[in-house]
Each structure stands twice: as structure tokens, then as C-alpha cells.
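ugh ok fine here u go
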Amino acid sequence: MNLVVDIGNTSTKLALFEGNEKISQSRISGLSCEELEQKLQGLKVEKAIVSSVKEIPLIISELFFPNIPFVHILSNRSKLPFKIEYDTPETLGPDRMAAAAGAFNLFPDKDILIVDAGTALTFDFLSANCYKGGNISPGLTMRFKALNMYTEKLPLVSQTESFTFPGRNTTDAIAAGVVTGVSYEINEYIRGFKDKNTDPKIILTGGDGEFLKDKINYNVMYMADIVIDGLNFILGYNAT
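structure:
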């Protein structure tokens, strides 16, 4: 049995696989030794992979390495089935690496744009079995918080489907500005990518992906678990 641990900025995802088949998946807001022990109790985990956008918690080494025969920490030194053309691979986020691996596993030899709408909004490009790089900008929640934090009078607005456009009050003006701004940004990236590539694959993922998917003007594949699936793929690639 494989264990996949994806430690993000706001939460941690855990998934169990038998080979390529996902058995279960859960999300936790924190990461405590007690909670991990409870979730893994009675399970025979033979291989595990850990991806973290933060420092690897000490409990990973305390709990995993003594109890799991093979543990892989995803990094720029991990084996991947595609070339990374990135000037600073040591700074490439493991979540972006994992999403690229998941996309490659599904669509080898294809040109792929991965849009990850999470805490940050990232755009990653795969072409000719090479990771070409990508762009990073603030995600929805970060934009809402920035408008509130860096001004004296603008309120903190949260993600919503209902707002006037153009905004007829300050709350709607912020909601319309942030939500449509992110939507326009994604649409323009897709338009530019499709102009330069023949029959590309466009994948949308991330915590805000489901909210944004109907606001995109192009045919995209919404894949909420592309990072988790990519991590399991990388685990198999490095365990052989």
C-alpha cells in the first residue's frame, strides 16, 4: 500500500493507493503525530511519499522512517520521467512538480498547461516531454486579503458568486474585481497557450478550481486530485 502526503499552505491531504488505484483520501487542517498515527493505525504501508511547500515537519521523520520501509521526500533530486528546464530547480515548488507529473502520466508527449488555483495561482507548461517553467500570481483569497490589509477602508470580502458587474457598491466592486480579474487572467493564459500549441491539454486544479471552472471560456479538464495522483506516480518511479 502507498501513502501520499501533500502538505500545502492551508491544509494537508492524505491518500492511500493500491498500485495506481486510490483507496481513500482525506484532508486535515493541521498535522499532528497523534492524528497521523490514528489514520494509519492497522494499515500496512510499504511506500510513502511526502510533498511539502513548507519545511518538512519533524513528525514525518519520527513516525514514517521507523515504520515504513520506503519513504521518499519529493525534491529537485527526485527522479522524474521528463526533463525540467528551470534555471533554479531547487526553488520549484513540489506541488507544481507533482501536478506536472500527474499531467505527464495522463498525456505523455502532449503540450499541457496546468492551472492551479490555490493559495497562489500558478501556470505550468509541459511540452515535448519537458517542463518548460511557469508563472505565479496571487490566488483569490490572497487578493481579497491584500486589498483589506494594505488599505485603511476597504473591507475584507470573501469569494462569492453573487455580485453586480460593474460593482454598484464597494463590496461588489471588490468581488467583481478579484473574481473576474482572476478569470480574465486564466482565460488569457489559455488563449495564448492555444495560439502557440497544437491540440494542447488544459488542466485546472486547486482549491478554487471548482469555483472558477464555469468562469473559463475554454474547454478545460477539472482535475482536483492531479497533484495527489502525480505524487503516487512519482513514488512508483522512484521506488523502482
